[in-house]
Prior knowledge:
Number of domains: 1
Radius of gyration: 11 Å
Structural class: mainly alpha
Largest sheet: none
Order of helices and strands: HHHH
CATH topology: Non-ribosomal Peptide Synthetase Peptidyl Carrier Protein, Chain A
CATH class: Mainly Alpha
Strand content: under 5%
Low-confidence stretches: none
CATH superfamily: ACP-like
Distance between the termini: 6 Å
Amino acid sequence: xxxxxxxxxxxxxxxxxxxxxxxxxxxxxxxxxxxxxxxxxxxxxxxxxxxxxxxxxxxxxxxxxxxxxxxxxxxxxxxxx
Length: 81
C-alpha cells in the first residue's frame, strides 16, 4: 500500500485493534493470534474488516480474510491491497 511504511502500518493496525478490542495496544503484537490471544470471534472479524477497509481505504477480499490468523496477517493483506 503506497504511503505506508511497514512499522507505520503495523502501528496503525494495532492502534485500531486496541480501540476495537478495548485492550492496551502494548499487549498486541504482530504475532498475536486473533482468536487464541485476542479472543476475536467471527462477528469481530467482520467488524475488524469493516474498520480496516474504512481506515485504510481498501476493500479486502473475503477469501483472503478467511486466512487471517495473526495481526501480522492483517498487516500483510492491507499492505498488498
